[in-house]
Each structure stands twice: as C-alpha cells, then as structure tokens.
Amino acid sequence: MRDTPAEATKLSELSSHQKKSGLAAWLGWFFDGLDLHLYTLVATVFVAELLMVKDTDPDVGRYGSYIQAAFLLGWALGGAFFGIIGDRLGRYRFNIDAQGHIDDAAVAEALKGLHRFSPKVLFLGSYPRADKQKSIHEGNNSNTQFGEAERWMRSL
Question: What is the pLDDT of residues 66-97, one digit of tens each?
C-alpha cells in the first residue's frame, strides 16, 4: 500500500498550497454571491425610488421580489449556458491511431487514462490488422513489460 498523508484535523495542519486553494475558493464563492446579498440590503430603498413611491408601498415588495427572482434565474441560466459554451469551446478534438488492440493491457490502460482527462472520448473501434498478424510491442511497451509494471504497482 502507498503511504498517504494523514487527514488534516486542524487549520494549522494544512499545507501552504491547500490554504491558498481554500482561500481562492472561498473568495470565489464570496464574490459570486455578493451582488445578490448587497441587493437585499438596499432593495427596499432602490425599488421605491425606481417606482417613485414610499418604501411602505406594497408594490415595493412585489417588484423587489421580481428583481431578486431575476438574479436567481440569471445565475441558473447563465451558469448552464456558459458551462455548455465553455465545455464546447474548451475541449480539444484529436484523432489517435495506435498500433495495438484494446485487448492489449497497455492499450486499454492508455485509453482509461485518456478517458479520465477527456470523458467525452468518441471511440470508433479497435480492429485487427489488415495482414492478420499480431501486433508486436517493442521495448517497455510490451504486454510482458506492462504486466511486470502492474505487478510491481500492486506490491507497493
């Protein structure tokens, strides 16, 4: 088995990198929600001024709720829309033509590794060679070498 670091139970046990990552995440969440929270602090005065009525008018609460609902709807739709756009624009498209078959342990492991980083892999198939000969992997890419590496990994 591999040695894994002990789970941190106190803030002082976190590494510098973990502290910086946590701070960055917290700041992102804080500023992402800040606009709506600021709005709720000024909503009554803001909406009354927009409607040119007193802040006790019932329409202030109703229209203020519409504005707050628009914030929430905008977050949901914006997140979905830009998530889809970012996913489509942020993905690479490439073709892999490899010597080997999916039944070869090394090829299967490489495909699993690829899928971990690119979950939308479009697999077109694994076909035998046209000359019907078995593929021979040389050097450290052979199934024998891969099997030895696999056994070594399990022994750790």
Answer: 988 888 888 888 777 877 776 677 666 677 88
Of the chain, the end-to-end C-alpha distance in Å amounts to 5
pLDDT at 1 over 60: no
Q: How far apart are CA 57 and CA 45, in angstroms?
A: 11
**Token pair for residue 142?**
């052979």
Alpha helices, DSSP H, located in the chain: 16-51, 58-89, 105-117, 143-155
- What single-letter DSSP state applies at residue 57? S
Contact (CB, 8 A) for 48 and 60: yes
CB atoms within 10 A of CB 104: 20
Q: What is the pTM of this model?
A: 0.40
Distance CA(119)–CA(112), nearest Å, equals 10
